[in-house]
Amino acid sequence: MWYYQGEPFTETPKEFHGFVYLITDDCGRMYIGKKFFWKPKILPVTKTRKRRKRTIVESDWKTYHGSNELLKEHVQEGGEVKREILRLCKTKGQCSYYEAKLQFENDVLLDDNYYNNFIGCKIHSKHLIEK
């Protein structure tokens, strides 16, 4: 279960594109990352549809446990984790910006209490401006 501001978060909000999260395992080790609520899907050509159709569908965010292999192993072995949404974001650029910002602020690469071992982002200021 995901939590946002201390409350369970189960509905997919249409007005947000994704979120930045913190996952904490039962040993106190943490992971900061981002996840999108929506993903693109391309419907194939059929007898009635002459062209491929681009659409978006809900992602696997409700069952997601991060992209770090050690953290995923911990979950598969029955380890408990707490999943918290730190910030809801309206654009992919906002997700990338706030993920990197929180990772740098918490020194995730220098602290052994974090699973994070990589920070990568390429963000332009126009990605952050709300439309």
Overall geometric form? globular
Question: Measured on Cα atoms, how large is the radius of gyration?
Answer: 17 Å
* CATH C-level: Alpha Beta
Summed up, the domain count is: 1
Helix content: 10-25%
Structural class: alpha+beta
What fold name stands as the CATH topology?
A: GIY-YIG endonuclease
Q: What is the strand content?
A: 25-35%
Query: CATH superfamily, please?
Result: GIY-YIG endonuclease
Report the biggest beta sheet as strand number plus sense, adding barrel if it closes: 5 strands, mixed
**SSE order, one letter for each helix or strand:** EEEEEEHEH
Discrete helix count? 2
Report, as a whole number of angstroms, the end-to-end distance. 31 Å
Using DSSP, what is the number of strands? 7
Low-confidence segments, given as residue ranges, are none
Spatial sequence of strands, sheet with the most strands: 2-1-7-3-4
Mean pLDDT across residues: 90
Query: What would CATH call the architecture?
Result: 3-Layer(aba) Sandwich
Report on this model:
- The protein has 131 residues and is of the alpha+beta class.
- It has a single domain, classed as GIY-YIG endonuclease (3-Layer(aba) Sandwich).
- Helices cover 17% and strands 32% of the residues.
- The strands form two sheets. A five-stranded mixed β-sheet has the order 2-1-7-3-4. A two-stranded antiparallel sheet has the order 5-6.
- The mean pLDDT is 90.
- A hairpin with a 2-residue loop joins strand 1 and strand 2.
- It is globular.
